[in-house]
Structure prediction request, 882 residues.
Amino acid sequence: MRVSRRVVFAVAGSLMAATALTACGGGGSTAKGNADGVLNVGMPNGPQTDNNNPYLSSSAANSLGYKNVIFEPLALFNKVKPTDDAKPWLATKWDWSNNYQTLTLTVRDNVKWSDGQAFSADDVKFTFDLLKATAGLNHNAIPFGDTTVSGSTVTATFTSPQFVNEYKILTDTPIVPKHQWSTFKDPATDPVKDPVGTGPFKLKTFTPQTVTLDVRSDYWKDAPKVKELRYTSYTDNNAQATALATGACEWAFAFIPNAKQVFVSKDPAHNQLYFPPDLAGHGLWFNTTKAPFDNPALRQAINMVINRDDIFNQGESGYFYPPITNITGIPTPAGNSFLAPEYKSQDVKVDVAGAKAKLTGAGFTFDGNTLKDPTGKPVTMTLSDPAGWSDYQTDLEIIKDNVSKIGITATVDKANQDAWTKNVDTGNFDAVLHWTDGGATPYQLYKSIMDGDLYKPVGTPGVNGNYGRFQNADATAALKAYASAADDAGRTAAMNKLQKIFVDNMPVALTSASNLGGEYSTKNWTGWPTNDNPYADAHPTLPGALDVILNLKPAA
Amino acid sequence: MSYLLRRIAFYVLTAWAAITINFFVPRLIPGDPVQALISKQRGQLNADAIHSLYVLFGLDKQDPLWHQYVEYLGQLLRGDLGLSFTFFPSPVSEVISTSLPWTLALVGVTTVCSFLLGTGLGVLAGWRRGSWVDLVLPVTTFISSVPYFWFGLIMIELLAGPNSFFPSSGGYDPGVVPGWDIDFIGSAVQHSLLPALTILISSMSGWILSMRNMMVTVSSEDYITVAHAKGLTDRRVMLGYAARNALLPNVSGFALSLGLIVGGTLLVEIVFSYPGVGFQLFQAVGAKDYPLMQGIFLIITLSVLAANFIADLAYLVLDPRTRKEG
Prediction:
């Protein structure tokens, strides 16, 4: 017995000693500075698996964004200035014909894949044909037709006009090598462990937490100053914020409550927040089939009393989702060129008196401080969003307070996320904060709000947009007209009409724009896009990241 | 022998029932993996992508549930756990194999340590009644009633922070490449200290309590008096006579807790964002990742069953009464 007791204590003792010893030895390696040309990028997405398929949103390459420096697009649009011309990339020029149903492009010479083979027009055709044949990979649902190659010219056809999808086809379609991908048994389920691309970097090591990429020596453009990229996946927003604050991470996209104190104030000279708006929105969606929210006057009145500044400064921490101020719901300045002349300078300002006048003009009455609808019922509304979405919850509290000024009693429902998703999907709600789609023009934004083709009756699930069950035949027709218009004049007319329908009906009170931003530090690297020089978006996982990385220079 | 066969039949039946429940319960949760992914991205994912995701995950076909179930059983027999949705198209077995070692190391080491320490302290507390050691009792009762995730939150609040030695989340420093070198192991141990301490302190008290109570019962037995009367040293009586007999319930308890190691201490892993099985299960539930959830449940169930089986066998060896037929 004595022996076994000793053994027991010896084992326990040595275990603890080992723990203590190694603990003292471990300081961990911290991020290296600029000397080796390392750029540390982060995303708060948790442990990853070795999966570099650029077309799968679940892959590490997409989730962290390093697919953008391995696989390149045909041309690079700047999402921040969507009406600017695209930069030629793998295609040196491109022309649309046959009302945006035929794309003729010339591919670049002297481009090599990272395994040394030459890039050619066949690779572009292969990529298009691959997406056409594999619905699972066609993440933008582009209706590809036949594609033909002659020399370095590719002629691609589409089964419908693609004006509104130009960004997706030219910029959001990474070109993959035929000689590698044609050997895959099923490209849709292939993790592409050894990614071969035309981009400036190639994969060096993969771990579930950090992916390292090395610069290529035979890249077709000027060699980037960044020599090594480290993409780290932090376990959560908190860990990501800490890494940004300590400088361990130099570029990230994460929502940080109190970003100005937690991040910027740690190094005000270098730590920057650059969050330009995208042409996509977040706003209060009304259930337009449910009384009294089926009354456009009530929706317009609510839109008039929502305080967007409070939402921006309190809910969105003063930086994350920029406020949408134009009455048309189109985010500015990105969407300035799309605004109809009559709405150019029409900004929404909190106007309680105007809202009350609008309501009484539409048959609503005030009983003391209570608003009653034309049938005499007091107006109440339930505002609902998942409990864990703290910024949305703050926004809802602000809206609840705002609508009380026009006599509406609102309650905020902190829902379970699954139940909420189902309720939105089946149209079982009064009003929810929700996002819209986005794109290179306001078309996608309006389509996801007003398209009658997306309409499904309340109770029927499976809507991909039009959560508010908005029905307006003119809107649906105008959307169709915009997507298939033969010229700019036709598009402008359709867009102006859409804006008028939106303003007159206000199916969604848009409050904030989505962003294309990121947090970055100029301590080791300069040349980032800024509000004064918005040459690209600064979201590490969007295609523009490639342009940003190529523009970075070591700080003096 | 027939006892053993009956036990084995029982375990096979339990395994089947568990697998069936594992299959159906996740599908009863509202929502589906694609909707969960869209909600998580909050507008970053285009609505056009929805169709491609349904096709990828194989959810575009309206397969009847029983058909999926039969297919799933067939898949299991081939040893195939399917493809994870969150990490599509990585196989579930690959995803689990990245998180399992973390849990096994963290919870395994702490379970063994807490059993050894707790049982040892329990022996002392039970033997030296009436001395200062009795103080252990109210303290451990108090600690064992504190939920350990709450204890973990307190630890993070007090000990972890931007400039602290203790990291508040993760399994190792970002930038460290996992491998058998001092950098990685040091970093891993540093990250495991707080969660390990949390589990150790809150689970040890259970062992102390049960061991102490058994020691009290045993020490009033006649053979203890006889051992004392023979003139044996106090220590020999305590360990060789009292503790040895009092140990039996704790040993079987230990075998059971070995089974629970794989399940991890889910809440501790969530609190510390520790990259183990529990944290992964939590994320899989949020993402409606049915294959990953099933895979993790399956491994947890099987290891609990295996541990139970070992406990049964241990009893057969340790306690002659269970060997008697009829």
In short: The mean pLDDT of chain B is 82. Chain B touches chain A through 71 residues (CB under 8 Å). The first helix of chain B runs from residue 2 to 28.
